[in-house]
Amino acid sequence: MFVNISLAGTTGKLSGTVKEADSNNILIGCNIIIIGTDLGTATDIDGEYFLLNIPPGIYNVKFQMIGYETVILNDVVISIDKTTRLNSELATEVIAGSEVVVTAERKLIQFDVTQSEARITSEELEFMPVTEVYDVLRLQAGITQDAGGKLHMRGGRSNEIAYMVDGVSMTDAYDGGISVKIENDNIQELQVISGTFNAEYGKALTGVVNMVTKDGGNKLEGFVNIYAGDHTTNDSLFPNINSYTLSNDVSLSANLNGPIIPNLLTFFSSGRINKSDGWLNGLQTFTMYGDTVFNDANYNGYRDNDENLITPYYKTMNWYDSWSSQNKFTIRLSPTTKLKFNSIINSGQSQGFDHNRRMVQEGRNAQYNTGQFYGINLSHSFSSRSFIELNTNQFSHRFESYLYEDPLDPRYITPDSLYWAHIEGTLPTNIATEYGQEVNYFPQYTLDRWGVETGRYNRETTTQSLKLDYTNQINKYNQIKAGFNLSTHQLSLDSYSLMDSSQADQIFTPIIPEVGSYNRSTYKFKPEEWSFYIQDKIEYGDMIINLGLRYETFNPKSNVPNNIHEPYINDPRNPALDTLSMEELEMINWGSISYYDEDSLGNPVGHTYAEYYDHFNDQPNLADQQGWWKKTTVKSQFSPRLAVAYPISDRGVIHFAYGYFFKIPDFSLLYNNTEYKLSETGTNFGIFGNPDLKPETTVSYELGLRQEIASRTKLELKGFYRDARNYVSSGIPIDLGDGKNYYTYVNKDYSNSRGIILSFYRQFSNYVGWQFDYTYQIAEGSNSDPSEEFGAVLAGNEPTRSIIPLDWDQIHNLNGSASFGYKGWGANAIFQYGSGYPYTPVITNYEQQGEVLSNVLIRNSRRKPMSFRLDIKLFKHIQFSGMKGKLYINIYNLLDRRNEIIVYGDSGRADETIEINRAEIISPFEPLRPNTINQFFNRPDWYDEPREIQFGLQFSW
C-alpha cells in the first residue's frame, strides 16, 4: 500500500506498518532501511515506524527481520512536504537469505492534501519544453502574467509570492522577486503552493514557490546539456528574423556530483552560460550623437570629415547574457548529523527594447543583475521520529543600469555642434539649403535620431538570516513542528543623472552630482524582522488536520516627519526656520517661540513654530511634538492557519483550508526618497516612500475535492476566495501651501479574487499521459499598481471610486500537457489558452484644427483579444561510450501565433489605431522624417515572442 501525507519543509517522511503475511500480526523490531543511504529505523511495539528528514528522490526500501523473508520495495518516491506511507507484509523465511523484490505503485489520490499544490520533479523537468523556472511557474493553474511578464497567483499582485530555496527564503525584500536565479538542471523538486499554506511559511500573501536543489551522491555522476537555436518567422512584424542562425540562442550547462571522501564528504557542482540575441531588432541608422552611421576609422565615437557613411544595419535590441554556478558540499559528521555548505552565484547583463530608439541603438543603458547566496545547514536527527535543522545564510541581489561603467567616460562628452542643433531646434545650414527654411526639422511621429542616456542606477539588497526548525512525531497522531527566523537587511541605493559641468558652452562634459543634492538620490537602511511559528499535523482516523499559528514582527528602523507639511529638512518652507542650523532643526521643539510681535496694547506676543501651519487644520498637537523626525513603529501580527482533509471513499477526498497572511510591503515603497526632496518648481511632488506603512493582509479560503474517476485518472475541483486589505496605494495630496502638494504611499487599496479550478490528470502509462487545468477566476480591486492613483492625478483624471478588474484579471484560462513515449522516442506538448486581459478604452475626437479631445472611459472596462500558445519537445534517447544521452528539439509558439500583450485604447488591438489616420492628415509628408508613419505606430514589442526552435543534446554518466 502506498499513500502520501503532507508535511512542511525541504525533506520528506516515510511511515507505515509492518505485519506478518500469514497471521496478519504486527511485527515488532523489523528493520526498515533506505538502500544506499545511512537512513533507517525499526518498528515499535505497535508495528509502526516513522522515518523523518529524508531528501526528496526515488529510493529502494528494505524490510528485514530475522526469520522472515526480506522485502525490497523499489521506486519509492519521497517528496518535500510529504509523508510516504509504505506498509509491508513479511512471510516466514523458507530459504535462508531469500528476498522478495516489489515495485511500489504510487497511489493516484493523496488522501491528506489540505491545500492546492503542484509538484514537478527533476525527471519531469527534463522532459518538459522549458528552460527556466519562470517557464514552469506560468503553466500552473491559477497563475496569470501581466503585460510586463510578471506572475500573479490567485489574483494577487506579483510581489506576493515567497521564494524558498533549500529551506530558506530567497525573496528580494526590495521588490518581491527572487534574489538568486536557480537553474532547472539543479532542481531536485519544485513545489508550488497556491492560496493557503502552513504556518511555516511567511512573507507571502498568495503562494509559495519551494525549490530543493540536488545533493551529491555516493558515486561520481555527471550531466551536460547543450542547446542552440533562434527565432524564425516570415511575419514582417518582426524585422530581420526570417533567417535562422543557431548561434543566436545558446546555452551550455553541466554538473558533476559524487564523493570526495566516501561516506564522509560529497559534493554537487554545476554551472551554466547562456546568451540570447532576442527577437526585436532595430535598423541602426544614426549614431547616438545624431549623425548617420559611418565607418569610425579612429574609434572616437563620432564622425570625422574624412569618414564615409555606411549602409544602415540591423542590430538586436532585447539581448541578454548570463552565467551561473552552484556548489554544495555535504559532510556526514555522524550517522545522524549532516553539515552542508551551499553557494549559488549568478550574473547577467541585458538590454530591453525601446521603440523610440529603433533607429539609434547606441547610447542606451544596459542592465546588470548579480545574485549571490552563501548558506550553512546543520541537521541532526535525535531519533527516527525527531530532528532539528539550523540554517544560517546570506543572500544579495544587486541591480545596476548605466551606459558606461565609468561615469566620467569621455564617450559621454558630446563632441560636435550637430547634437546641440538637435536640442536647440536650430536648422543646420546644409539642410536649409537643400529643403528651404520652412522645412520641419523636428516633425511629429518621428523616431529618435540621437540620444546619450546619462542616467545611472545602482541598488543592492543583502539579507542575513538565522533559521531554526524542530520536528517531532510525538505520537502516532501528532507531528509537531516549530521554529523561528531572524533576518536583517541592508539596503543601499544610488541614483542620479550626469550633469553638465558648464552651461556656457556647447559641449556636454559630465560631472557627478554631489551626495545629498537634489539631483541625486541615495540611501542606506537596515530593517530587521523575526518570526516564530508552531504547527501540528493531526492524523486522527481518516481525518487529517493541519493547525498552525505564526507570529511575525518587523522594525523598519527609519523616521518620518513629525510635521507632514514641512517634510524637507534641507529646504524648509517656513522662513522662520531658515536661521536654524541642521542640528537645531533636527531637535526642534515645534511649540517653542519662533518670533515675537505686539498686541493692540503694545505687549509682546510670542508665536510658536507650529502656528505657521495652523491654517492646515490637521495637526492640532504639533506644538507638543519634539524633533523634526519621529521614529517608525514596530509592526507585528499573529496569523492563524487551519486546513482539514477527509476521505469520502477509498477513491476520493475533500479538503478545506483557511489562513490569515501578513506581508510587509516591498522596501521600494517604504524607503524611496524618504528625505522628501522638493524642488522650487512644480506643484505635485512624489511619490515618496513611507517607512511607516502597515503590513498588507490577506484572508484566504479554499474548498476542494480530489476523486479517482478511472484507472490512473483523477479529477480535482477547487474553489477559492481571498480578501486582501491594506494594499499600498497613493495617498491624498498633502498641502505644502502656495498651491503645492506632495504624495506618499499609504495603506488604502483593496482587492478580492475568487475562482474555480477544474483539473484532469492521467498518469503516464501505455505510452501516453496528460493533464488539463481549467481556471475560472475574477480578480478585482481598487488599483492594480501602488502608483496608479498618482498617475491619474498627474493626468487630471478622477481617483478610483469603485472596484474594477485588475490588469491581470484573466477570467478563463486553460493549460494542458500531453506526453508520448515509445521505444526511446518521445514528445511532450504544452498548450495555453487565455481569455483577454482588461484594458482601458479611449474615444478620441478631433477638431478641424487637429486638436485632440480624448475621453477616457471606465478603467479596464474592455477586453483584449484571447491568446493561445503551443510549445512542443521532441526527443530520442541514445547511448554512446557508456553514457546515456538524449537528442531533442524544443519548439516554442509552434503555430507562430501573434498574441497581443498591449493594445491601443481606441481599438483594443495592437495593430490598429485611429491615430494613424490623424497623422496622415496633419503630417502627411516630411522630408526629414527618417521613418514612415506606419513604422512609428508599428509595435512589435506589444506581441508575444514569435516561433523559436532549439536543437539540443544532453548526456549523463
Write the layout of secondary structure elements.
Layout: E1 2-6, E2 12-20, E3 31-34, E4 40-42, E5 48-54, E6 57-64, E7 70-78, E8 82-86, E9 88-90, E10 99-103, E11 116-121, H1 122-127, H2 133-137, E12 143-145, E13 151-153, E14 161-165, E15 168-169, E16 187-194, E17 207-213, E18 221-231, E19 249-261, E20 265-276, E21 281-284, E22 313-316, E23 320-334, E24 337-350, E25 366-383, E26 386-402, H3 417-424, H4 429-435, E27 455-473, E28 478-497, E29 499-500, E30 510-511, E31 520-525, E32 528-540, E33 543-555, E34 559-561, H5 582-586, E35 593-598, E36 604-608, E37 629-631, E38 635-649, E39 652-663, H6 667-671, E40 684-688, E41 696-710, E42 713-730, E43 734-737, E44 740-765, E45 768-781, H7 788-794, E46 804-805, E47 812-822, E48 825-834, E49 838-839, E50 842-846, E51 852-856, E52 862-863, E53 867-880, E54 883-892, H8 915-922, H9 933-937, E55 948-956
Parallel strand pairs: 2-8, 2-9, 7-10, 14-17, 40-44
Antiparallel strand pairs: 1-8, 2-5, 3-4, 3-6, 6-7, 11-16, 12-13, 14-15, 16-17, 18-19, 18-55, 19-20, 20-23, 21-22, 23-24, 24-25, 25-26, 26-27, 27-28, 28-31, 28-32, 29-30, 32-33, 33-38, 34-37, 35-36, 38-39, 39-41, 41-42, 42-44, 43-44, 44-45, 45-46, 45-47, 47-48, 48-53, 49-52, 50-51, 53-54, 54-55
Can you walk through the features of this model?
The strands form eleven sheets. The chain has a 22-stranded antiparallel β-barrel. The protein folds into three domains: 2-103, Immunoglobulin-like; 221-280 and 317-414 and 452-558 and 633-902 and 939-956, Maltoporin, Chain A (Beta Barrel), CATH 2.40.170; 575-630, no CATH class. Residues 1-8 have low confidence and may be disordered. The protein is mainly β. The protein starts with a strand and ends with a strand. The longest helix has 8 residues, at 417-424. The chain contains nine helices and 55 strands. A hairpin with a 2-residue loop joins strand 25 and strand 26 (386-402). Helix content is 6%, strand content 49%. It is globular. InterPro entries: Beta-barrel_TonB, Beta-barrel_TonB_sf, CarboxyPept-like_regulatory, Plug_dom, Plug_dom_sf, TonB-dep_rcpt-like. This is TonB-dependent receptor plug domain-containing protein. Residues 358-894 form the TonB-dependent receptor-like beta-barrel domain. One of its GO terms (cellular component) is cell outer membrane. It is a multi-pass membrane protein.
